[in-house]
Amino acid sequence: MASSPMTASSQSSRPPTPNLVFRRLRGRRSPGEFAAAVRRAAREIDERVSCDARYIGRVEAGEIRCPNYAYERVFLHMFPGRTLTDLGFVPRSAVRGRGARTAGPAPAPPHDPHEPHDPHEFDDQNHEESDVRRRAFMSGGSATVAAASLGPWGLASGGTAEAAPQRSVRRAGEAEAGALEEAVRRIRLLDDRHGADGLYRRAAAPLRAAYALLDVGAARQATTDRLHAGAGELAVSVGWLAHDSGRFDDARSHYAEALATARVALDPALEAHAFCNTSFLARDAGRPREAVRAAQAAQVAARPLGSARLLSLLALREAGGWAGLADRRGCEQALTRAQALYGRGPCDADPEWMSFYGDAELAGLEAQCWSTLGDWQRAAHQAHRAARLQDPHFTRNRALYTAELADDLARAGHPDEAAAAGLRVLDLLDEVQSSRVRSMLAGTARVLLPHRRASGVSDFLDRHEELPRSA
């Protein structure tokens, strides 16, 4: 999008008017929580927006006087029966002049010269272009990261990221940093809905492109910081895709890459995230003591950040490690700390990547701890809570919690209920590709084999047997 020809002084001559109506609609939710609600509403109508706490803040500050068409559709879906003016925005006609759509080669999208440029804002033409770029991620290309201007590196035309730094190119800027951040959001959204197995290999090219950007560098330190944070978060996300699809060695490598990036950039938030996932991986890989130590290191990094919810999640990671060590007391102490920190509520300091962490995830992770300790009844109780509380948009997590419930019920001696839960998971596998969920179902099937005559068990075992085997 072309930048405004107005000078800084002319922009500042017209200070924005805060959107108090929109602020009231947010209510007691934090900007981050409200942004998550906007993204969920967008998915309900098959729309795509990259809403975050910063965008909500800019709307409420009046910097965004009228949203783009994508956001308009989402907001009107969230608040049916209202118009944009009812939501505190000015009419589109007040910010979109007729002269904006003039003839000529590649005209700039219409943009109010008094309204600061925002990468979240674009007209229908740019929206369609962005939609194509986002879909390109699912087709295996590197266009998600290349969306803004990675073209000079040759990635969009078949070049390789490894060769990129050797070419004479301009330095990375705001557009590249924004495209990188969007790639991270897009991968997380796709994982939430579909699981990791179909995404992991397709994420390799964007990750290579991200680190190629770091090699090229940026003119401004603020952009360099965004590139480091974006590349590190992308490494964590790709590591999670490897982790959830059973590629533990690959996941360990990606998490280590993210941790190294955090250390180089002196980024405690990224460091806490990398250690958090390293702890989770260590638990799953049968290294519980490493899980405890990584979780404790994450807590040290996270304390200055001011997010009680983040510290709560990290305490749960520690609890998982203690459970793996069969240390019930250590596990219970960490669980108590996690619950107390969670009870402090959300805040603006909560990282964007923690949008999955709510009541359901808290219950689900506690269920995993009790399951590891062999307390199947308590595990089943928490797994049932997790499945019941989970937002339906997080399809993968619904499948995960229900698979946990099925396994806990089977081991607790309730084969009929376990089979019913297992059948619900099988119904979700058309949408979810997760080796973790499949592995859990396979374990449940083994436990239920001696109970084939119990109600529903035979149906579950037969349907499970029909599942296509992973390559």
From TrEMBL:
This protein's name: Tetratricopeptide repeat protein
Region Disordered, residue ranges: 1-20, 97-133
Ranges annotated as biased composition (Basic and acidic residues): 111-133
Domain of life: Bacteria
Source species of the chain: Streptomyces apricus
Segments traversing the membrane: none
Low complexity bias (residue ranges): 1-13
